[in-house]
Predict the structure.
Amino acid sequence: MRVDRLSFRQFRNITEIDFTPGPVLNYFVGDNAQGKTSIIEGIFHISTLRSFRTATTLDLIQRGHESAQLEAHVSSISGKTSQKNLKVRLSKGHRQLTLNEKQVSPSKFVGQVRTVVFSPESLGAIKFGPDLRRELVDQAVYQISSEAPLAFTRFSKALRQRNACLKQIKMGLIVPNKGRGILESLDAGFLQAATEITFLRLRFLDTILPHAQETLSLIMGEKCSLEFAYESHDEPWKERNLEAIHQRLKDEILDSSRRISEEALGVTLTGPHRHDLSFLFNGNDSRIFCSQGQQRALILSFKIAEIVYHGKAFESYPLLLLDDVLSEFDEKKRRFLVDFLRAHNAQTFLTTTDHTQVLQGCSVFHVEAGRLKT
C-alpha cells in the first residue's frame, strides 16, 4: 500500500497542504505546534475515522472554520494493482465519506487504508494507565477486523444507554425498581456488544504474541519471555470462545455488590471499557518491575508484531506513522526500528524537531504555521 498524494484543508492547525510523499521514509521537520502531528493525525483519521488525540470531532476542524477536508490518493503495491481516492469532509454534526467519488458508509470506508501509529502516548501506555493500554489494542483491532467498527459502534451506543439509566437512578429521576427493569432490558444488547469487543481483543493478542516474543528477544539481544495478561476486576481472562466470554461478562454484570456500586456511582462498572492489559516481562508485571527503556522495548515489540501481522494477513504492510518518537528510543532501539522499516519497505511518515535525526535518502518536508515549506 502506498499513499501517492495527500491533501488537507482546515484540519487541526493545518491551513492547507497538498503534496506527494516519497515511497518509503518521509520526514516532517519543524518546531513544535507547527502542524507536524496534525499531518500524522490526518493520515490516521483517513484510515480509522478516529483520532489518537481527541474523541471530539469539532476539535479536528481548524478554529474559525466551519469544516475540514482530508483527501488521499492510494495505490496497491501487491497483487492486483488498484487505485483509490478517499475523501473525508467534517463539519459540525456531519461527516461525509467518499470512495472514488461515491458516498459510502463508515463500514465501507474504514480499512481502505491501514496504519500503525507510534506516539508518545503509545510509548507511555504501560506506565500511565489502562485507558492507553486499551487504546493500544483497539487501534489495531479496529483496522484488522472487518467486524470491529460496527462492534465498537454498537458497544458505545449500548454503554451510553446503560449509563444514562444508571445516572437517572442515582439522581432519583427514576424509581429504582423501574430503573432496574430498564437495565435488565438493556443488558442483552450491552452483553452482546461487550462480548464481541472482548473476543476481538483476545483473538488479536493471542495472534500477535509469538511475533512480539520473537521481536523482544531480538531487541534485547537475549532470550526474553513476554506474556499478555488480559484482565477484568483483577482476574485474568482464560475464556476464549464467544459463549464462555458472554457467560463471564453476564456473571460480572449480575454481581449484586457491583450492581449496588453502579447505582451509587451512576456508571457501568463491567465491560471492555473497564478491562486492562498487563505486559509480563520474564514473568513479572512490567508496570512495576521494568525500567522505562524495557517498557519501551515491550511497546516497540508489540507494534512491530502488529506490522508483521498486517503483512501476513493482507499481503501488504500498513502505513507507519511515527509522531516524534525516535528521540524516545536509545540508539539500539532506534537502529532496530529503522533497519526494520527499510528491510520491509513500508511507507513511513515521521515527525521530528531535530534535523540531525533525518536519514539520508529520505523525503523531507518542512512544516511551518500549518503549511509545507520547500
Remarks:
- The chain has a mean pLDDT of 91.
- DSSP finds twelve helices and 16 strands in the chain.
- The domain at 1-114+318-374 is CATH 3.40.50.300 (Rossmann fold).
